[in-house]
Amino acid sequence: MTIAIIGSGKVGASIALNCAIRDLDDVLLVDIVQGLPQGEAMDISHQLSEMGIDRLVRGSNNYADISDSGIVVLVAGLGRKPGMSRMDLLHTNASIVRDVSMKVASYARNSILIVVTNPLDPMTYLALKTTGMHKDKVMGMGGLLDLSRFKSFIREASNVSGESIQAMVISEHGENMLPLIRFCCISGIPLIDFISAEAQSQIFENTRKVAADVIALKGATTYAPGNAVAIMAEAIIKDKKSVIPVSALLDGEYGVSNICIGVPVVLGENGIERVIDLKLNSIEREIFHKGINSVSEAIKAIMP
Ligand code: NAI
After folding, report:
1. What is the distance between the alpha carbons of residues 264 and 256, in angstroms, rounded to a whole number?
2. Numbered ranges of CATH 3.90.110.10 in the chain
3. Is 46 in the active site?
4. 2-140 has which CATH code?
5. Which site among 2, 168, 175, 243 is 20 to 30 Å from 145 CA-CA?
6. In the CATH scheme, what is the code of domain 143-302?
């Protein structure tokens, strides 16, 4: 089996590198630009040979090559420019995601599909509906990246190892992201024993806006998204049953149906093995429902 990555730009290449250096599987990069996926594949292969990792990394401009893939990552599409929101990409990226999803349905219908293209939650829904694949096999990566940012701020403020931090981020991968301060702990010890309530509020705000800061400084986010997708691929390939946030189709959980949004799930060889229905308090519920409304509006705007 192979991990196929459709879209070999900045994030696609980072996903390929992160999957390859974890020795997860062979990797296939696909793009419409001639030469780009082949060049990225060569560059990554050269790093692997020095590391002693004997995985095959290839590039292709032919969708038929994804047919033996166990996991397909959809990361084709435009990224936001400084000052843009993820929703500003909605219509342009919807036509790319629709087109690519039809190819996935034709060539790799039995794979597990991880969507990365923004705006993440509506694009995950669009890919799910266009491919007609089972809801457990189609998910979006957004919350895990938000979580890595959240943990990075907690680590800075608490001055303890990131390994000891447990946390969760749910809701829309966008304006209504919900870092769950109330659910955080450091090796089982409540966060308040390490970080003041005021500093916690600052971390909440910083987590929600830091992606825009990175884009303003370097034009795109690259390494952390690549790492987050590789963690998801690893959970699936090794059947780890990891509890991590992904954009998943809700079917009554959180009192909502027929929408994809970030929630914690158990991720294993069958894809989404369980959606975890958290009991949110009223403030958390309000933000989560703003996320639901925002994603619903976007879905309405792109679905026929
Ligand atoms: P990029 O512009 O560097 O690469 C996009 C690639 O997609 C290009 O190489 C382009 O040729 C290719 N492409 C376009 N249409 C295609 C098609 N029909 N088939 C195959 N390839 C096609 O952009 P970058 O920075 O790699 O970002 C890609 C997407 O990932 C953006 O939508 C961005 O917003 C999103 N993103 C999502 C994150 C998340 O957490 N979910 C994090 C970071 C980026």
Report:
1. 15
2. 143-302
3. no
4. 3.40.50.720
5. 2
6. 3.90.110.10
